[in-house]
Every structure is written in C-alpha cells, then in structure tokens.
Specification:
heterodimer; A: mainly alpha; MetI-like fold; B: MetI-like fold
Amino acid sequence: MSDTAKEFDRRPWVLLAPSLLAITVLVVIPMSFILVYSFYENIDLAVDRVAFQLGNWQELLTDGYYHIAIWKTLRLSVIVTVLSAVLGYIPAYFIAMTKFRHKWLLLLLLILPFWVSFIIRTLSWIHILGNKGALNGLFMWLGLTEQPIPMMFNEFAVILGFVHVFLPYMILNVYVSLEGIDANLEPAARTLGATPWQAFREVTLPLSTPGLAAGGLLVFVLTGGSYVTPLILGGPNDFMFGNLIYDAVVSELNWPMGATLSFTLLVLLGLVVVLYSRFMGMNQLSKAFS
Amino acid sequence: MRAWGLIRLYAILVYVFMFSPIAVVLLLAFNNSQFGGFPIDGFSLRWFYKLAENEAIIRAFKTSMVLGLLTALVSTTIGVLASLALVRYRFRGKDLITTVLISPVLVPETVLAVGLLIFLRWLHMPRSFGLLLVGHSIIALPFVVLVVQARLVGIKREYEEAALSLGANPVQTFFQITLPLLLPAVFAGALFAFTISFDNITATIFWRPSGMETVPTQIFGMLRHSVSPEINALGFVMIVITVGIPLIAGGLARYFSRKKI
C-alpha cells in the first residue's frame, strides 16, 4: 500500500466509523446527558421537570448519607485492592517462575474463573459462609457449635466476594509483567552477591510494579462501581455508592438524583484512572490480552 | 529451596480459594435435599428435571442465548473493522482513538447503564431488547478490539501485499487473505463477547424491559428468597456452557492446527 502521505487517506476512518459512531452515541453523549440531567428537578415518582437548579447537588453535598456511602466505597475498594495484591502476587510469581512442565494448565486455571458466571461465583459464598454453608456444616459436625454461626450478610462476606471475583485480574496483570522481565536479571543480581530476597526486592519487584499497578487499577475501579455484590452478600448497612444509584433509579425512580450520583461516581473513579495514566500510561492495561 | 516450597504452597492455597466455592455449587447441584445447602442428603438429578420444567428459566435462557449471539455478531463485526484500521493504517490521533475505543471499560458499568437509560428517556424511547443488544455490544467492544488487535499485529503484511500485487482488490484481499488468517482471533473475540453478554448483570438490571429476564437477572430475582437447589442446578448448566464451549473450541483449534503440520 504505497500511498503518498500528502493525500488524506479515508480508509482507516471508514473502518473506524461504526465503532466510533457507536461509542459516541452510546457512551459519550449519554455521559454528557447525565451531567445535564443532574440539574433537572425531581417532582414525583418518575416525574421530573426540565430545569437548571442545584438542588440535587446541594443534597449530595449536605446529606451525610451520601458521604458515608462515598467513604464506605473508598474504604472497601482500597481493602479489596490491597488484599488482591497480597493474595495475587505470589501465585503470579509462581506461575511465571515455575519449571513445571504443564504450566499451560496453571494459566488455563487462571483464565477459567473469567468464564464462570459472576453471579454464580458471588452466590457460591452463601454455600461457604451461610447457615447451611460448608463451614457451619463442618463446625457443627465437629461439635464446635450447636447453632450455626452467622458469617453472612456482613462486610466481611462482601469483601470476600469481591476479592474472589476480581483476583484473577490482578494475578493475570502481575503475571504478564513478570513474564516480560529478562530471566537473567535475578541470577545476575545473585552472582553480584545479593541474597535471593534482596535480588527479588531490588530487581524483580520494581520491574513488576507496572503489572501490579494495572491490576490494582482494574480491581479498584471494578469494586468502586459495583452494587450487585453488596446486594447479594451484604447486610442492610453494607451499601456502596453504586447501591445509592441503583436505589435512586430502580426503586425511587428519581432520575435527576440518579444522574447526579452517577456523574459523581464517574468523576471519582475517573480521577483514579487519570492519576494512573499520568504515572503509568495506558499501554500496560492492554498487555494482558496478548 | 524452602522459600520456593512456601511459594508453591501459597499459590496452591490461592487456587483452592478461587475454585472451592465454584466446586461447591457444582457439587450441590446434585444434592437430593430440598434446601440449596449442606448437608448432602444423597445424589439426585431431580433439580435438573425441575429446571427443565421451569418456564421462566427456559425463557430467560433463550433470551440470554439470543442476546449473547447477537452481541457477539455486532461487536465482533465493528470491532474487527476498527482493529484493522488501528493495525494496518497510519493516521493522526491513533492513540486518542485507541483510548476512545477502550473507554467503555473505563467507565463504571453502573454509570454507563444509567447514562444510556437517561439518554433514552430524553428521546422518549422505552427500554427494549434493542437497548440490551447495543448496550452489551458496547461493553464487549473494547475486549474484542484488544483481542483481535493483538492477533492482527502478528499477521505479516506481506501476504496482503502479495495478493494486492497479484491483482486482488482490497475487499477480495480482506475476505480471501486477511479474514482466514484472522479467523482464530475473530472467533476468540466473538466468544469473549458472548461470554460478557451472557454473564452481564450490572447493566442488564437497568436496561431490561419490565418482564424480560436474562439468566443472571433471573437468578438474582430468585436469590431474594434463598438459594434454592434449582439455582445450583442452573449454575451447573451455566458453568458447563461458559467453560465448556471455550475449552472445546480451544481444544479443537489445537487439534486441527496440529493436524495441518
């Protein structure tokens, strides 16, 4: 394809047109709409009025309920991200460094959870922690307790559910960055007198931070935007910001408030993404797919 | 190497953590007990029979299948075209375009769902199956683009150039050279899109018209009461479909590629 550079080449734009059109109509325009809609006034169930007023925003800023939800969401997202990193790094390291002949099997097992339905994986924890769950069954069989111990419908169960569902994203991203490290570097550090731990801490760990950061971003943003997991595994007090959006839109049919909350969540999580891309760039995120 | 032994043990424990809850669902699907939990009363297939008679679930299942297949078709078609543009052409603003194409992943799904719903409301359009289709397609699009793009980079351009120099036009070249070489990636992308659609609940709850259920929203609705044994049986079926199809497809692909050599 020897086109002269001077002439404007229309072909790539023709190929891109359907996708760009779809994203514009289905993502970009709707995102601007939630901002516009946040100034509308809610009158009654599912009835709102075109207006430009700050009532929704005022409510968001003054009502402590919303602040608690933001705080809880932030706290939970941080906890889930840290736990995923702690739980995920070592298995990723193991898969990357093992001399096991059937390494493909370990990788396949790592991809497998992505294919198992999210809702099934989430509700499966009821079978582990619930009153009729595996743990209570075991405890009662061992005679440790007469009555089932309540372990469900609390923050712990929600955290466990999140970590279980999002951990593969972390492991995969860390694994990809560990795979990309020159295998001679750690031995080189060792011959220069470093202990195995020093070699890991000074060479491997810093080189794998891009993967750790990419995995962390995904886990953080995915957790921060959730509402289904707390509904299934949490108690009445374990709501997140996404749950307020769900309540406003699905239960109260208060669209302007739903829009206000959605826009807020978009900005809060968007800030995290922007911060990430300032330091890391967006390339690392797509590496896990190749 | 005691440290390595510990690392291995740790990794095994994490794998156990990831798989034991899923294994429990698979196990409990065959539990004879009328409650969806422990203890296990005995082996039985009765919940699968119950499942096959449950019309609401069958309907949800059909909806999910049709939705998943159409989503795969739509997002793979436009995703392949976009990937071709990104890999095969040079143009200004490519980085920006790539970010835009991936943007649906970066927007929280809840926000994406509410945004689209409000836009539709402004247009005075009701929720419909069409909304679910375009919505799911846009959620799946970034994944399709990433998968297809990664594969397309590995296909040598010389093949296409050879076809062009032998007198094929670009469209012929695409259908006779590029597409066959790209087929595994197209297939992987389509499978990915199907799984994403089949599994989606976060946005689906917002977008579905009243009275329409997909399998995940149906399960979600059933969970309101308790975990019934039917849900376990349904979970078994879903896992077999979403894990089995890619495994078989991957296995077949390996088998045929070996045969050729």
